[in-house]
Amino acid sequence: MKINLLQDEHLQDSPTAAKALQEIDTVLVDKFLSEKPRSYLGASGVGNPCARAVQFDFIKAQKNEDRLHPPARILRIFARGHHAEPLVVKWFRDAGYHLTDRDHKTGRQFRFSTLGGLFSGGCDGVISKGPGIEGPTLWELKCVNTKKFKQFVNRGVKKTEPKYYAQLQLYMAYFNLTDYPALFTVLDSNDYSLHIEEVHFDPQAAQFYSDRAVSIIADTNARALSPRVSGDPTSFACRWCDYSDVCHSGANPLLSPDFKPPQPPNPED
Questions:
Q1: SS3 assignment, position 71
Q2: What are the DSSP E strand ranges found in 193-238?
Q3: Which tens digit of pLDDT belongs to each residue from 32-70?
Q4: Are 41 and 54 in contact (CB under 8 A)?
Q5: Rounded distance, CA 83 to CA 187, Å?
């Protein structure tokens, strides 16, 4: 597989350096492609403004040829976020917060699952007590670049990333953590600044996104396309979508003879 070396311009005429980067990137991409795709609709994605994009991700529709996998640089960014989480958890705990990031029964994230296992999500943690904490509080962490960090600081999560806001509302609803505002925590990956925002429970938003998940799954079972955000492939949302080619092709991948509606995941997976 040919890997796009996004840093070639910094390597000049060094074949050894180019080879090292190629090997690192190849392993990252190969590992990503070997991972078993999830077989449920995730709470982390249902807030996407385009319901059809959510549906296509749910059914694993054919992605655009140039979007078959994230570039290795993006995969490194994903890994950075995973490594940052234990560090931020430790900061909270050292500051006196009882932050639990794993379900003691499973050893995994706290998860909710509904609609026969087809709609599911896992939160980063729950704070049971600590300075200023009045009761069980949802905790979510995002690790972002400086530009995005400033947007969260200046505009808040609801305006900056509606899909994260939807995620928070669904978690508060399904984990029954509605009495106290969630603590949405953002880490600047550049200088490690922290932004912490209280997000109050919005029952109307939680209901909207829960209903949306139900609708997308129902559309899929009926082999019907969910509504898309725009019929114009040159619109901003469509230009950045992994599925814009198939979406605007006029075809319905759910009508393919090979299509099988997603099945609930194995609880042991």
A1: coil
A2: 194-199
A3: 777 777 789 999 999 999 999 999 999 998 888 877 667
A4: yes
A5: 12
Of 40, 33, 50, 74, the C-alpha closest to 244 is: 50
Q: What is the pLDDT of residues 2-29, one digit of tens each?
A: 444 444 445 556 778 778 878 888 888 8
**Contacts (Cβ under 8 Å, ≥6 apart) of 193:** 149, 187
Torsion of CA 202, 163, 44, 188, to 10 degrees: -110
Q: How buried is residue 147: exposed, middle or buried, by Cβ count under 10 Å (0-12/13-18/19+)? A: exposed
Q: What is the DSSP string of 8-50?
A: GGGTTT-HHHHHHHHHHHHHHHHHHHHSPPP-SEETTTTTSS-
8 Å CB contact between 253 and 61: yes
3-state class of 142 per DSSP? Answer: strand
Q: Which residues contact 179 (CB under 8 A, 6 or more apart)?
A: 135, 136, 201
pTM of the model: 0.86
Task: State the distance between the two ends of the chain, measured CA to CA, in whole angstroms.
Answer: 28
Q: Tell me the C-alpha distance between 23 and 3, whole Å.
A: 9
Token match 């925590």: residue? 185
Report the Cα 148 to chain-centroid distance in Å. Answer: 15
